[in-house]
């Protein structure tokens, strides 16, 4: 195992100079990052095409455009966020004032997955920089072209004692995890999240875990069916279903199931054509291992739509499965591919029980026109975040902290959420020395004592 102590020592020494904490330095770093991403836009797109066959449109909207927006929003707000926040002081503390200072942690470790390999490495980095930290990024070994471009971008604008990219596989990740970081930000699977948390516990390093899970999507009988069909097809099959917040399975009310399924099939064809395997812009599955796992689900239940796959290109058609039960293999773990099982329901209590009897989802989507039903589902089910009458879109708002709950993750980020995540909230009470209130002292006899 390689030893990364030297790199960490360099970053910690740089951090202790205080340079990374200065507002101008943070702003400049964000500006450089933004400019470099813009300059390298074509290279990033080419790398994403090579790694995942991502179309330019998807590469821009879900990776490049997303992080450029995030940097722009952050730069606008940096000054405001960095200012110590004055908070209320109780009467018992008369004479003093209370503040929360946002303190940089030090050296952060960012571990990224392969499904949005550029965005999921850069978005946490924006948070780390904004909060004045140094950082080491370990991108995914499954998307080597994107990791290479990422490393070139970072090395061309930042010295390694400030921000560094270390490429490598599990062994590299574990060697880095054995170092003493000040913060660990992990995006990936639930089992690896547990490994990361265990490693962090040895040094009591705080962690954010952005994990996955089976995210339900409920289509109630009063939903706008045409709109639901289109928005679910988009959120499920974008990136060939390899999205942490993609609808994992559908709960469709029995009264509208037939109509919904017809419109849903139509929506899929509108998005990807009659033969998605021939569509040059249809994202492929990241590896043979993932392809084989997904292909094994194609025999679950009955194929309602799609079901074909190409083992040469690693593409799987958008596939809809019916006659599915919770016992089927496709319902045991997060699918993370273009396969959508459909469950039918008659009452919302069936839906709520089904969701509550399984690990907390990262996202939940509900299509209904009824406010009372919205409130019922929001207040009676546990999930990281989600949308009413849409899918995936909550993730792209810088005003909404994004993260899981329970087994789908710990902590959140995006926008101010990223700054908060990478900052320690240091509470400071500034006391007056003009007088002393003696009530707290055991020998109190007189009233207020003026010094
Ligand atoms: P993964 O957990 O296999 O790998 C993620 C990263 O961890 C990679 O960089 C990998 O090299 C490293 N890693 C793998 N095994 C490790 C180990 N034993 N010890 C230390 N490091 C290790 O995840 P993945 O397959 O790259 O990504 C898919 C998963 O990520 C899905 O479960 C998905 O839901 C989740 N995800 C979550 C979010 C989110 O924001 N919540 C976003 C994208 C993906």
UniProtKB/TrEMBL annotation:
It holds the Pfam family Aldedh. GO terms for cellular component: cytoplasm. Keywords: NAD, Oxidoreductase. This is Aldehyde dehydrogenase. Belongs to the aldehyde dehydrogenase family. InterPro entries: Ald_DH/histidinol_DH, Ald_DH_C, Ald_DH_CS_CYS, Ald_DH_CS_GLU, Ald_DH_N, Aldehyde_DH_dom, Aldehyde_DH_NAD(P). PROSITE patterns: ALDEHYDE_DEHYDR_CYS, ALDEHYDE_DEHYDR_GLU. It comes from Gracilibacillus oryzae. GO terms for molecular function: aldehyde dehydrogenase (NAD+) activity. GO terms for biological process: aldehyde metabolic process. Gene3D superfamilies: Aldehyde Dehydrogenase, Chain A, domain 1 (3.40.605.10), Aldehyde Dehydrogenase, Chain A, domain 2 (3.40.309.10). CDD domains: ALDH_YwdH-P39616 (cd07136). Residues 23-428 form the Aldehyde dehydrogenase domain. The active site is at 210, 244.
């Amino acid at each position: 195992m390689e030893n990364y102590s030297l790199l960490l020592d360099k970053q910690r020494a740089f951090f202790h100079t205080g340079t990374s904490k200065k507002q101008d330095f943070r702003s400049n770093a964000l500006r450089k990052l933004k400019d470099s991403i813009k300059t390298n836009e074509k290279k990033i797109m080419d790398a994403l095409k090579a790694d995942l066959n991502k179309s330019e449109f998807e590469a821009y909207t879900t990776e490049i455009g997303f992080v450029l927006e995030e940097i722009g929003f952050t730069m606008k707000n940096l000054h405001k966020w960095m200012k110590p926040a004055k908070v209320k002081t109780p009467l018992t503390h008369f004479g003093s004032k209370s503040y929360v200072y946002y303190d940089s942690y030090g050296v952060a470790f960012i571990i990224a997955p392969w499904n949005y390999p550029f965005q999921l490495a850069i978005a946490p980095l924006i948070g780390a920089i904004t909060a004045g930290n140094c950082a080491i990024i370990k991108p995914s070994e499954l998307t080597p072209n994107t990791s290479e471009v990422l490393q070139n971008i970072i090395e061309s604008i930042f010295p390694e004692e400030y921000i560094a990219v270390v490429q490598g596989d599990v062994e590299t990740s574990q060697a880095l995890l054995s170092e003493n970081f000040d913060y660990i930000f992990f995006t990936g699977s639930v089992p690896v999240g547990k490994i990361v948390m265990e490693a962090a516990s040895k040094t009591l390093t705080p962690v954010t875990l952005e994990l996955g899970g089976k995210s339900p999507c409920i289509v109630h009988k009063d939903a706008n069916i045409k709109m639901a069909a289109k928005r679910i097809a988009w959120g499920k099959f974008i990136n060939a279903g390899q999205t942490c917040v993609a609808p994992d399975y559908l709960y469709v009310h029995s009264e509208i199931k037939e109509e919904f399924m017809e419109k849903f099939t139509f929506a899929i064809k509108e998005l990807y054509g009659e033969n998605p395997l021939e569509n040059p812009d249809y994202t492929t599955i990241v590896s043979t291992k993932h392809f084989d796992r997904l292909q094994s689900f194609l025999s679950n239940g009955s194929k309602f739509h799609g079901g074909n796959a190409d083992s040469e290109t690693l593409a799987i058609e958008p596939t809809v499965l019916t006659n599915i039960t919770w016992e089927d293999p496709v319902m045991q773990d997060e699918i993370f591919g273009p396969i959508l099982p459909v469950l039918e329901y008659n009452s919302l209590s069936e839906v709520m029980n089904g969701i509550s009897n399984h690990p907390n989802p990262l996202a939940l989507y509900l299509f209904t026109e009824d406010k009372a039903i919205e409130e019922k589902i929001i207040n009676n089910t546990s999930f990281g975040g989600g949308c009413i009458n849409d899918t995936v879109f909550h993730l792209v708002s810088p005003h909404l902290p994004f993260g899981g709950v329970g087994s789908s993750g710990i902590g959140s980020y995006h926008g101010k959420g990223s700054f908060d995540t990478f900052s320690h909230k240091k509470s400071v009470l500034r006391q007056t020395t003009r007088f002393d209130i003696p009530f707290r002292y055991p020998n109190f006899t007189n009233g207020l004592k003026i010094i």
